[in-house]
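INFO  loader      accepted 1 record
INFO  loader      residues=280
INFO  predictor   begin
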Amino acid sequence: MDVLVDKIKFSNNKDFCLIGGINVLEDYDSALFVANHYKEVCKKLNINLVFKASYEKANRSSINSYQGPGLKEGILMLSKIKEKLNIPIVSDVHLPDEVELASKVCDVIQLPAFLARQTSLIKAMAKTNSVVNIKKPQFINPSQMFNIVNKFQKYGKEDLLLCERGTSFGYDNLVVDFLGIGVMKKSCNDLPIIFDVTHSLQCRDSISEASGGRRSQIFDLARSGIAAKIAGLFLESHPEPDKAKCDGPSALPLDLLEEFLIPLKELDQLIKKQKDLNII
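INFO  predictor   done
INFO  writer      dumping tokens
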């Protein structure tokens, strides 16, 4: 099944697209700089791009965590970036009241993993013209994504992306079940699968207020995701990850973006040429 985002076609059987950007808006100038760098690299490599940035991080554990500029100021920033660079935009929404304003700017609105069972939020998102990216909750098995998809469809929304972002493995650790990608494809009528490599790297010291990460393993995990024949890769970068206000330990250094994407594109093209075996 194909899903169109602006003029970009997301499909598990076509060249992978990149949902790439930063974790959260810190200020307009830095976000514009990152977005422009993504655009230049993706244009050079012929990779379709949807720029991602959160206007607010409403699901942080600690009250001391940076939350972003908020809905109105953040959406204004994203609107300016979209207009200036002529690129599609994705951001996550957390409350039904946010959805209408966010969807006026965002080509894709994202359902956070911890909120994927919230019927009132799903209903509000389904009423928009934006594509919806559903983050798979860390606490459910892949086949249960059918229930979330079915709920959207009952409210009339068909243009959906499914995003793998790791599964809880004990306390404060995530693992990625790549067999689950095939399960989601089968149970959800081959909807486009996105692999969120950045958030899958998260881990936490139990006494820390902020999420830790395993940035050094980002390439290993990204290659594994691409090898599962997916529609898109979700990636967060930062010019100085160690100074990022949120999730820096999992972010790719921005200056490595091109070097990071080149072999992934080569691998994706190789995988997509191969015929799937119908093994029962």
